[in-house]
Amino acid sequence: MQLHLHYRFFPSLHFASPATTFRFANCKLRKISTTSSMSSSSSAPPSSSSEEDLNQVIKYHNQTKHNFFNYAKGPNGLDWANQPNPFRRYISSPLLPLEQTESLINEPPLSYSSLFHSLPSSKPITHSTISQFFYDSLALSAWKTTGFSTWSLRVNPSSGNLHPTEAYIISPKISSLCNSSFVAHYAPKQHSLELRAEIPEVFLQNLFPEGSFLIGFSSIFWREAWKYGERAFRYCNHDVGHAIGAVTIAAGELGWDVKILDGLGYSDLEKLMGLGSGFKVPSVRKKGKLPEIEFEHPDCALVVFPIGIGEFSVDYEKLSLKISEVFSELEWKGKANALSKEHVCWDVIYKTAESVKKPLTRDGFCVNSLQRSGLISDEVYRESKLREIIRKRRSAVDMDKKYEMERETFYQILLHCLPSGEGEKQGKQLALPFGVLPWDAEVHALLFVHRVNGLKKGSYFLVRNEDHFDEIKRLTRNEFEWEKPEGCPADLPLYRLALGDHAALAQRLSCHQEIASDGCFSLGMVARFELTLREKNAWMYPRLFWETGILGQVLYLEAHAVGISATGIGCYFDDPVHSYLGLQGLEYQSLYHFTVGSPVVDKRIMSLPAYPGPDMDA
């Protein structure tokens, strides 16, 4: 029996438009140039990143844009016979079962809003705490079934529920789990760890504070490309961001902090997770039996450590040397399972992935104290419990077109979307979960307000890095108001651009999807783009998507905490969004869309417990 997963994006659908210009909400959408300026006045890229890498990233980004007249290249239809297995397994690798329980390590259970004010005291690394960490971040959350179709859902969201992200743990020994330090792959269907290798105790002891462990993330591009074609590289990196956000929140409830080890290079990450593939980038698109494209592209490593331990440093050169010394000699257990019989290799994905491979760098590692986020009122969250919100997160399929959010709730959600926390100038990533990132915020939000009681309908802009404010205002339309809306908290940098009903515009910009207009508000995440790539190198391209994914994870949790729902939208018309704002060129680019509102529940779909689930890979 062929099992079909449930999907929420439909980029393969095409809509013709008879006109070359469009008017919505009194704003004219005009054709604009998307050619990179690449002018001599731009700052030269550092020597470690070639101009060819930057050009490839710009080429990929422009080539994979959707617009009113054509979509990015994708499959003409879905090859259900070769739908990728959503669960990577390492055959013959010893299985280390984790606890499958809803029992609470935190007594009494933490309220959702409390985590954004301060973390609880740190828990030790035990079988129970590691079990809860994965259970509340990357595990299955439920199974869904209707008719002849059954599919699984996970705590961490994924575009199309395809889940290209794989996770690894590098841990000290844990009593009743493993008697030595180890590397393991997380298997979400079994909620278990697959032992890949045992490592010397001194590796973690000599490099990180006591009570620390590492998490590694990798991406299987084929899982997304099977449905989305060339645009899949974007979605894979959205999902890396979702996963980073999910583990940061889950760590926080255990009193653990998380930081990306962003000085490590691609080869360091390969060794750390045991992922060497030998994959050679093809020169053209290929189709057939291509098992080599099921390889895992290592994305990043995170260090998880107890709060309150004070400052500590990471010497990336020493860490890289130790990884080479220790991990190159390991005996790796298990062989990766096959995901599909036949494949389509979208060459532009792998060329771009090659261009954003990061070398070892001497990035500074800084442990900043987490800053509390702004709070208008705890009543907004209806005494929601953190673990309940984490595990009931779902992606809405439809919105009810009626529910109105209160203005206070809207402002509260946006306060938790700020990177720097309460009373701070926004820019530095200091608040949960954004503090995991080592760079200043690069992502802002264009909002379309549809149904917020006490706030006029219109377009608004949330400035998440106030150092960008003057530049954004200069680059966007002269007719925009840039006024603080009524009742807006003083430390929330939200500005009204234009009044009016923008529902039709929001729907059309998001590939004509009604869900973008039927909720309380929708938004496009707009990143400082070309200058960021030039200043910080081509490898910032996926990292910009990670930042949008973390912001999306916060929006998911916030929506559920106030009693409604949300959905990430990967299908949108890129340049028409820029045209609405009046943006020219590539200074700022829209990288992810989102919608928040009251969901319509499909009563034909039945929910089943996550564990034990059906004996199927779906």
UniProtKB/TrEMBL annotation:
Report the domain of life of the source organism.
Answer: Eukaryota
Q: Which GO terms describe its molecular function?
A: oxidoreductase activity
What are the Nitroreductase domain coordinates in residue numbering?
123-275
Pfam families with a match to the protein in the record: Nitroreductase (PF00881)
Signal sequence, start to end: none
Q: Which InterPro entries match?
A: Nitroreductase, Nitroreductase-like
* PANTHER family assigned to the protein according to its UniProt record, in alphabetical order: NITROREDUCTASE FAMILY PROTEIN
Name of this protein: Nitroreductase domain-containing protein
Task: Tell me what organism the protein belongs to.
Answer: Papaver atlanticum
